[in-house]
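Q: I'm teaching a short session on how sequence maps to structure, and I want students to see two examples side by side rather than one. Could you give me a first protein with its sequence written out and its structure tokens following it? Keep the formatting plain so it prints cleanly on a handout.
A: Of course. Example one:
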Amino acid sequence: MNFNKAEFFKSYGEFKQLPQSDRIEIAFAGRSNVGKSSLINKIFNRKSLARVSSVPGKTATINFYSLENIYIVDLPGYGYAKVAKSEKQRWAGLIDGYFNAERKLELTFLLIDMRHPPSKDDLMMLDFLIETEQPFVIVLTKSDKLSKKQQAERMEGFMKEIPYADEITFIPFSSQTGEGVEDVRGIIEEISSDD
């Protein structure tokens, strides 16, 4: 699979605008400012395929990227406090609508900042994925900000903080050092070759 060939396909601001699902989809979800855009750019070897913003809560649309026979779906970041209530409801409608629709969603990469315990929103998202039996992998972003010792301590913490942690795949990831890039690519390749 040639990851350099990924292309921006389209952005959708409301659930009703989403096209019918005609191929495998792999979603990326996570809190605002967790590093979704940086991760997507790193995986596809591009500087600005996904627009990176220093302003949390900037991705307010569902962005589709096409890669050979699949769509990579970048969901709006959740949990950003300084957003109008109507905007939060629109985001929630987008995310809920996406997950509850009849789509060919094969996997969700749930991004959590490795430096901190999961937020209340992260845990709600985890509960939702577990309850609805959606396959997912947890990507622990910003791993380069921690020493190896701190990483090991946080992994121990996650084992207690995250339900069913021992049954979940965790990938420490850094868009700075490239840690975890090949692991994420490997999973995407595996899913796309099952098609």
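Q: Perfect. Now a second example for contrast.
A: Example two:
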Amino acid sequence: MEYALTATKTEARAGSYYDRIARFYELTFKINGYGRSLDAYFQTHPLPVSRGQRILDAGCGTGLLTMALLRAIRFPVSITALDLSSTSIAAARKSLYYSDGRKRDVTFTQGNLLCLPFADESLDLVVTSGALEYVPLADGLAELARVIVPGGHLLHLPVHPGIAGKFLEILFRFKSHPPKEVIGRTEHHFRIVHQYRFKPHHVIGWSKTAILAQKV
């Protein structure tokens, strides 16, 4: 009981912090071309989903990855965009409202990546970017694996250690995980399908690699 109360208080403090930085976070990643890098990746690496499947953007922030998913997927799907920060979710919902995106395909919900509000084996694809860096890696990957159907996929965009990663750690209070640990922990639950290093001229390439893995 004491652990649960402590976890709840920690989550509340974290949510409050991300509420305060949501606008700055959104501006930072809009300016730096993050969305364009995602578009380029999805053009050459189509997502492993089909019509009507269930997708989770775990740790959606202000919705840049959610919007990139909508641009990349040309058929109806069911996307849930989840984040701990209510302010970030409001910004994501606003971005979708003013875009040409398919609003009916997206549901927004506030929640914790370590305790996802989904049944076991209920999602076909989970995508996450800069989110597992806020939680213990093993616990986060185990929770994502729990909700993915056998044969379903995880697309993880980890922030790797380096100059850019260190800057983001200071700016947004998270911890980038060593690449070997990311791969090792992922392979506890998934079979890695491919890894992709973003090109240096893409801003996302300063710190990120795409890892697509399939649940075994």
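Q: What should students look for in example two?
A: Point them to this: The chain has one domain: 2-215. Also worth mentioning: Helices lie at 2-31, 34-44, 64-72, 86-97, 137-147, 163-172, 179-186.
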